[in-house]
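Hypothesis: this fold can be encoded by more than one sequence.
Test: take the C-alpha cells below, design a sequence, compare later.
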C-alpha cells in the first residue's frame, strides 16, 4: 500500500518524474515547453512564494485564470505547499 507523500500524490508524481526523466518534456503550451526538471523547479519556486506570503498548509487559495502552463504551475505549487487550490 502506498501512503500519501510517497509518490501517490500529484506532487509525488511530479517529483518522481523529474528525478527519473528530468530532460523529458512534461508540458507544452503555445511556443513554450517545460521539461520535468524545469517544471519541478518552477513549482518549488512558486510554492515558496506562496508560503512566504504567510499562507500555511491547509489554507485555501482561490485561483482564476485560463488553462495555461502558468495555471498548471500555480495548481502544482499549491499541492507542493500543502495548500488547497480552489478554482
Amino acid at each position: 500500500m502506498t501512503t500519501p507523500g510517497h509518490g501517490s500524490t500529484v506532487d509525488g508524481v511530479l517529483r518522481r518524474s523529474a528525478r527519473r526523466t528530468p530532460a523529458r518534456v512534461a508540458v507544452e503550451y503555445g511556443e513554450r515547453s517545460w521539461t520535468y526538471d524545469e517544471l519541478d523547479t518552477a513549482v518549488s519556486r512558486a510554492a515558496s512564494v506562496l508560503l512566504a506570503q504567510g499562507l500555511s498548509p491547509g489554507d485555501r487559495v482561490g485561483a482564476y485564470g485560463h488553462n495555461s502552463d502558468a495555471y498548471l504551475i500555480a495548481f502544482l505549487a499549491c499541492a507542493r505547499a500543502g495548500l488547497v487550490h480552489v478554482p
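The longest strand covers residues 25-29. The chain has a mean pLDDT of 93.
Hypothesis status: open.
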